[in-house]
Amino acid sequence: MLETLLFFILIPIGFYWIITWFLEKKQIEGLNRKVVLITGCDSGFGRDLVFKCSDAGMPVLAACLTDSGVESLKKEAKGPGVVTPFKMDVRSDESIEAAKEIVEEITKKYGGLHGIVNNAGITGASLWDDLLNVKDYIDVMDVNLNGVVRVTHAFMHLIKKAKIVTTASVCGRVSLPLLGPYTCSKYAVEAYCDTLRIENAIFGVSVSIIEPGFFKTTLTDPKRITKVFDDIWKRTTKEKRDEYGDKVFECTKNEMITMLSQRCNKNTYLVVNAYFHALTSARPRARYPVGLDANLIYIPVSFLPAPVTDFIFAAVRIIKQFPKPAILQK
User: What's a BP term from Gene Ontology annotated to this protein (predicted)?
Assistant: First the structure.
């Protein structure tokens, strides 16, 4: 009886995955006429995606935050697809408005913009919410969420019947400790992209969300995270520091640094490939969880009841023998 039940469950699932794989594998034609706009191209996923799209013959509009990012791409982008680097700050309406002239001028000969890749993002302040302030949240939101909204609104008129690809994170599916501002921004990005996908389906616009696990990039650099932790701890009042205690702070910081040093995936090309698939597949996915940790840990955990996830986090603290805050030890 059990074998029969499994047969009738697994066979349809198998057919579904085979058909889906076949449909997603088909690539759109004429990549040399599909111009894409990518934000956050100074480094990391955005920069690597510029090279991948250019190597495939796609014209690329590469928005960078810094002059050094622009100059670097001018020197190193050698693919058949023409790369046009320019400065654009996703936090500034004026900067985006100035960039519109460049984008609109170049896209005229291609009949519009094939895709927007909202890649620019920051992790911002990272530590217990109790030690953060409203500005910490505003600063992260202004890039990770408001930046996505600004860029999408500015260029949507060029992209109807095309694609929007946005970076979220597994932190947009499950809340992880010490990453409050980043997690809130990514939950909001997921909601915004779901809204875009539903509302713009009538125009034939596909909206894809990239959900990477932890990868080795400038955002997860242990030295940078150490400085962020130390700076926040130093600015915190003595009264608040005494509640937690130096031992808890150092233990927490060391655990985060160890995790980032040992568990971050070095294969960043996996994320870039997900971006590229979303841009070039005839049937892109709505969501792209990327990495073993995303697919085997964080995404499955996101579907569990809250008491279960709370138990998991509590169990981890016990197993790792995290010390109690100083105020609870008195």
Answer: steroid metabolic process
